[in-house]
Amino acid sequence: MEFNPQWITLISACTAMIASVAGPYVNTRIAGLQFKTNVLSVNRQKWIEALRDLVSSLNSQLLTAAVMRQSLEEPAHIVIARDPDLFRRVEGLMRTATHIELMLNPLEQDHQRLNALMQESIDQLRRPSPGHDVEARVERLTRDIIQVTQAILKQEWGRVKRGA
Quick one: DSSP state of residue 106? Predict the structure, then answer.
């Protein structure tokens, strides 16, 4: 079987033209995907670190507030209003809880659970359950907060490893 040399030349030229057009397009797409993946992974790692720091701070603030709350005879809002140091501590606790809440995705179940535990802890400090040890109740809630946060962090690290 004989091939016409002009056909071979035409096919070679077409192949070269397609490669010269498609090559940069493919390289640009791949570079864009790699950039997006890297940026997402870096941002997700920062989010993970920030959440870990904020939850540890929140738990510390909750446990400190629980010890203080346990000793209060008067309604908490009266004591807080009279004591500027205590007011700043409560303000810091609320700021930390709000910061965490703003970092969470309200559509994800683990995130909803973490938010609910934080709110339950704060409510326990505001209005302790009658006949219950406030300190022990808040300590249990902080352990639950840690468990839920660990599950969230594990899931997020999985996403970082996958580059998703």
Answer: T
